[in-house]
Amino acid sequence: MAPYAEPTVPVTGRWTAALSLANASVWVGWYGPLQVLLALQAAELAPGGRSKESVLAWVTGIGAAVSLVANPLFGAVSDRTTSRWGRRTPWIAAGAVGGAAGLAVLALAPSTTAMVLGWCLVQLALNATFAALVAAVPDRVPGPQRGTVGGWLGVSQTLGVVLGTGLALAAGGITAGYLACALFTVLAVVPYLLLRQDAALPRTLRPAFTWRGFWISPRAHPDFGWAWLTRFLVNLGNSLVLLYLLYYLRDVLELAEPEDGVLVLTALNAVLLLATVLAGGVWSDRVGRRKPFVLGAGAVMAAAAALMALWQTWTGALTAAALLGIGFGVFTSVDFALMADVLPAARDRGKDLGVINIANSLPQVAAPALAALLVTRAGGYPALYLASAAIGLLGAVLVLRIRTVR
């Protein structure tokens, strides 16, 4: 298939499975640390006079800033890669190896400075893998199949989050947890690499690189702009819910084993997400509509965040985790298909998806600063979760401004 042609041949289950497994490797590498390991390490290494919340906010915020730049940059580079192995494959392999190296640095980190360096390397490298993986979807998947493939990617994302959390807890310590995540991150991309189905880009077709290309005018491409803003706000609301989950369980609900509580909530969230993510994508493909699914999912996620603020019990947390799983499951698959449908140009799919993925990483930069302010100075955890609900709901409503997608 020509590299810039709109795909028409449906992808096989084998290809989708290999892509999904590789996608899971990225989320294991991200969420084993984010759900458990970074929080435990911050509490252990926090220097005198600084709180664990502050250390965690600095580490995750700086790492997210690296992600903010890395994803669109590697997307643009993969658009222009003329390797005989294809445009995307070299970056999938190199990113997995680099991400594992960053996790190894974290495993041996003796200070918060080393934590920052290790986490930045993880973010830099795994964003290379992620940018190349998501660009493979509009490269290979026809439009009517994108909701389904997006659903499978949502399944693998969820399983990656759960597996990363499980590896972090089951490995028996911070160091072993990081190393377990690193090993999985490398091994899980191998099946996709062995398929070797990435089309090579002839040098004569390679587009020129320009920094101005990273700016996509909302006036020239308004639907792209509204889709970006929808994803940013919904993800910001979701990030605010998840960032301090361990501390919420420990300090507000006063659970005796908050780490186990995180695992239970993550597993419940994952079960409900898995029950809806694929079904939502397939249903969206069949009816040919995206916006109603995004709007409904955002409303359910906002309700989950409001419960965290107003019903501060273990039962309330379980209910919120279930609702969040249902809402985010539908949102994950359908929003991915919507994004692929509004890309401005075929030759810049990787770069444009990288710009879209800023809407995933920018909330990780904004959420720590906003969450720390809300928790410490503006009303505590009720203020945090009510703000999350309002932000996420606003994002979902803005999807109605998109005109070219139903």
Helix/strand/pairing category: mainly alpha
> Between the first and last Cα atoms, what is the distance in angstroms?
28 Å
Enter the CATH topology name: Growth Hormone, Chain: A
**Outline, from the CA principal axes?**
globular
Radius of gyration: 20 Å
The CATH architecture name reads: Up-down Bundle
Describe this structure in words.
- The protein has 406 residues and is mainly alpha-helical.
- The chain is built from 14 helices and no strands.
- α13 runs antiparallel to α14.
- The protein is globular.
- The model has no long low-confidence stretch (mean pLDDT 88).
List the keywords.
Growth Hormone, Chain: A; single chain; 406 residues; 14 helices; mainly alpha
In short:
It contains 14 helices and no strands. It has 406 residues and is mostly helical.
Topology record:
Elements: H1 13-45, H2 52-79, H3 89-107, H4 112-140, H5 146-170, H6 174-187, H7 190-195, H8 222-243, H9 245-252, H10 258-287, H11 291-310, H12 314-341, H13 349-377, H14 380-398
Helix pairs in contact: 1-2, 1-3, 1-4, 1-5, 1-6, 2-4, 2-13, 3-4, 3-6, 4-13, 5-6, 5-10, 5-12, 8-11, 8-13, 8-14, 9-10, 10-12, 11-12, 11-14, 13-14
